[in-house]
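Issue: ligand-bound run for oxa(dethia)-CoA - logging full I/O for the record.

Environment: standard queue, default settings, no custom constraints.

Inputs:
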Amino acid sequence: MASITGIGSYLPGKILTNHDLEKMVDTTDEWILQRTGIRERRIVENGVSTSDLATHASLKAIEDAGISAEEIDMIITSTITPDYLFPSSSCCLQKQIGATRACAFDISAACSGFVYALSIGQSFINSGAAKTILVVGSECLSKITDYTDRSTCILFGDGAGAVVIQNDKEKHQILDTNLASDGTYADVLIIPGGGSRHSASMESVQKRLHYIQFKGKELFKLAINNITNLVIETTRKNGFDVQDIDLIIPHQSNLRIIEATMEKLKLPMEKAFVNIDKYGNTSSASVPIAIDEAQQEGRLKKGDLVMLVAFGGGLTWGSSLIKW
Ligand code: UT7
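Outputs:
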């Protein structure tokens, strides 16, 4: 059975606080903290890219797993901020870590991307088609954030997380993953420019089409309902009750979304891992960064039932149930 055998994460050193944002747009520390739970986020220096962050996180995960980069059969990176449209950030990462034997590709499922990538990796391990897979969530969201738009720029940050998965009964077993999408909401969370619909032009830049746009209120409700239902479905499908969950590691998009979800699930907030105050929303990097921090803080004990759950653009959502 596919198991997580190594974990690593990396956050760039530069900090952008709510007070810094007060000087950039018409906002306040109080508003941001009350509405989102975010105090600060990390931002890359100029010239640093998604595969650079992924490299730091991956090397830690590889060391934690006690393997060499040459043992990796496959690299799957989830990102909405790839180094280039092509080649993939996974290929850039492959070169940087020397994973010479691996096949490498990126996937696009926005904030749910890490759970999607984990599910793909799990299937390859369980079928026997691969032995060692590096699954990464890495984002430089500061590169696609409009720092003149107060409704979005307060939310996002940069970072990366990675796990190694292998067939190992002694480690953290991935019991099940569940994925869902609803493309009818594609325009609710979107970067309209830079693809084949509105390719890069003077006009697309002037219209600011290369930045994240969203309908926050609509997303807020959809996130709570879909995450809640998915957690309930996933636990029941695997013969557990929601109350059996020891720790939920949710995508960190808004503290109020996490609180409302826990309330609907009738679970205390102590059963949710939260680090949004430090990093904001790092899209597909948020779940693996949170796994790494939860592990380091001693929040994950052998035998614990752990639920990863994420929701984001697409719309997409996904869960992963892990026996720690
Ligand atoms: O990761 C993928 C999933 N992401 C999400 O699910 C994000 C979901 N949405 C959210 O987290 C929230 O909707 C936001 C944090 C984006 C916004 O919070 P909200 O409570 O829904 O605020 P709102 O958009 O309804 O705005 C309330 C008021 C408005 O003013 P009026 O119209 O009431 O006068 C906004 O103009 O707050 C104003 N506002 C701000 N004020 C100060 C919006 N942004 C700001 C700001 N600072 N940064």
